[in-house]
Design goal:
mainly alpha, 70% helix
């Protein structure tokens, strides 16, 4: 092994909480495209599977609130970038 290769620092492995947050973000971002009658069962199943194990309910609520507030602000500015 070369000296340069041994000096390289590998990236730290991602934390479980960070990975769960990324997964939740994908689902939160896709909610506008999910039929209204399927949103609650989808989120319930997702949080039961992931949230209960990792205690990520607060993360999901924060992401949902952020999406709602940011979406409201964008719609008030007259942009059509957010579809609800």
């Amino acid at each position: 092994m070369s000296a340069a290769g041994s000096r390289r620092k590998s990236a730290p492995p991602p934390s479980v909480g960070g990975v769960v947050k990324e997964i939740l973000q994908v689902f939160v971002d896709s909610l506008p495209h999910v039929p209204a009658h399927r949103r609650l069962p989808l989120l319930t199943h997702l949080l039961t599977s992931v949230g209960a194990v990792e205690g990520q309910l607060h993360t999901a609520i924060g992401l949902l609130l952020e999406k709602q507030v940011v979406g409201t602000e964008v719609r008030q500015l007259g942009s059509t970038a957010v579809i609800y």
